[in-house]
Specification:
Layout: H1 2-19, E1 24-26, E2 29-37, E3 45-54, E4 59-65, E5 71-80, E6 83-89, E7 92-94, E8 99-102, E9 108-112, E10 123-130, E11 134-143
Parallel strand pairs: 2-11
Antiparallel strand pairs: 1-2, 2-3, 3-8, 3-9, 4-7, 4-10, 5-6, 5-9, 10-11
């Protein structure tokens, strides 16, 4: 009985600690909750979002690649004459010992030329390249339209 209890305690502590672990980690950068909003098949553009946590010196996301769409770019949202507009940027600063969230209405990974939109419940890989931390492949989960990061439960 004691052995079973010890095993159950160990398993529950492992499950609890993994609930707070990063989804992906490369160098000092952790990547959590990589997701994209589902789109109808006729929609040819989409966006991917995620959160970066950095435990070291400042770094930069310098490229995102994948086969989900014809073109993939890093975008920011800027206000011009009272209108929010997307802008392609060459890199994205990840602050030293800080966090950066890619989210709707802010920084995001733009997916252009989707062959069939993005279907709820599917996944696709993206390769993220950081200036210092290196490269990592992440699985992006497509979530239903209307979803926001605040709706996600870890």
């Amino acid at each position: 009985m004691k052995k079973q209890f010890a095993l159950l305690s160990l398993l529950s502590s492992l499950v609890a600690s993994s609930a707070f672990a990063a989804d992906y980690k490369v160098g000092n950068i952790s990547i959590d909750h990589a997701w994209a909003r589902a789109t109808p098949s006729a929609v040819k553009n989409g966006a991917a979002f995620m959160t970066f946590s950095n435990t070291g010196a400042a770094d930069k996301l310098v490229a995102v690649t994948g086969t989900v769409s014809k073109e993939i770019q890093i975008h920011s949202m800027v206000s011009e004459a009272g209108m929010m507009r997307m802008r392609h940027i060459k890199s994205l600063d990840i602050p030293a010992s800080g966090k950066l969230e890619l989210k709707p209405g802010g920084y995001h990974v733009m997916l252009m030329g989707l062959p069939d939109g993005l279907k709820d419940g599917t996944k696709f890989p993206l390769t993220l390249k950081f200036e210092k931390a290196g490269e990592i492949s992440v699985q992006v989960v497509v979530e239903k339209a209307g979803h926001s990061h605040a709706d996600h439960k870890h």
